[in-house]
Write a structure and sequence with these properties.
By secondary structure, the chain is of the alpha/beta class. The chain contains 8 helices and 9 strands. α2 packs across α4. The chain starts with a helix and ends in a 7-residue tail after the last strand.
Length: about 190
C-alpha cells in the first residue's frame, strides 16, 4: 500500500544526495583558508552553476557557445562564480560571467543574478527581462514574490532555494523536476508540474 510513497522518498533522497555531491565537488576547487569552510557567497555561486545543469532554454536561446550569466550588484558573487565555472561546461557550452552595464545589456543573458544592492530596481529589471529567456535568481528576500524565478535563502547556515515556476515558464524555460523536488518551496506550480 505504501510502496509508491517509500519509492518516491528513496528517489528524492537519491536526487538530493546527487545534488549535494555535485555542489560539494564544485566547492573543492574553491580556495579555503585554514580550517574555514566555503562562504555563503561561494556556495551561492555553486548553486548558480548547478541551476544551469537543471534548466533547459528554448532553441533560440540555446544556440550560443556559452551560457551567459549576468551578475548585477554583487561583485563578490561574480568573482566566486568565475572561479566555480572556470573550465566547466554544461551541454557542451562554457560560461561567460558578465556585469551588465545597464538594462539594455540583459537580452543576451541566459541567467541573471540580482544582488541585494539592486533591491530597489527589481521591478524595473524584471520588467526588462519579461518575455526574454532569462533565468532570474536573487538572494533578495521574497524575490519570488516579486516575480523572480529563483530565490536563494540562507537558512540555519545552509543555502536553500525557492522556485517561482510560473515565472520560469513565462520565460520559456523548462525546469527539471529534479531541481523542483529539491526546492524548499515551489510557487506558481500547477498540478503535475512537479
Amino acid at each position: 500500500m505504501f510502496g509508491g510513497w517509500s519509492g518516491g522518498l528513496r528517489k528524492r533522497r537519491a536526487v538530493l544526495l546527487a545534488l549535494t555531491a555535485a555542489v560539494s565537488a564544485l566547492l573543492a576547487p574553491v580556495p579555503v583558508v585554514g580550517s574555514q569552510t566555503a562562504s555563503p557567497t561561494e556556495v551561492k555561486a555553486a548553486f548558480l552553476y548547478n541551476f544551469a545543469k537543471f534548466v533547459e532554454w528554448p532553441p533560440e536561446a540555446s544556440g550560443t557557445t556559452t551560457i551567459n550569466v549576468g551578475v548585477w550588484g554583487s561583485d563578490a558573487l561574480g568573482d566566486a562564480l568565475r572561479a566555480v565555472v572556470r573550465d566547466k561546461t554544461v551541454g557542451g557550452r562554457g560560461f561567460a560571467v558578465k556585469r551588465p552595464a545597464d538594462v539594455d545589456d540583459l537580452g543576451a543573458l541566459h541567467m541573471l543574478f540580482i544582488g541585494d544592492e539592486e533591491k530597489g530596481r527589481v521591478p524595473e529589471i524584471l520588467k526588462r527581462v519579461d518575455g526574454l529567456s532569462v533565468l532570474t535568481v536573487s538572494d533578495i528576500d521574497r524575490f519570488c514574490d516579486m516575480g523572480g524565478a529563483i530565490t536563494l535563502v540562507v537558512e540555519n547556515s545552509h543555502v536553500r532555494f525557492d522556485v517561482r515556476l510560473d515565472a520560469a515558464q513565462r520565460s520559456r524555460l523548462r525546469v527539471s523536476s529534479k531541481l523542483l523536488n529539491l526546492a524548499r518551496t515551489v510557487h506558481g506550480a500547477k498540478q503535475g508540474d512537479r
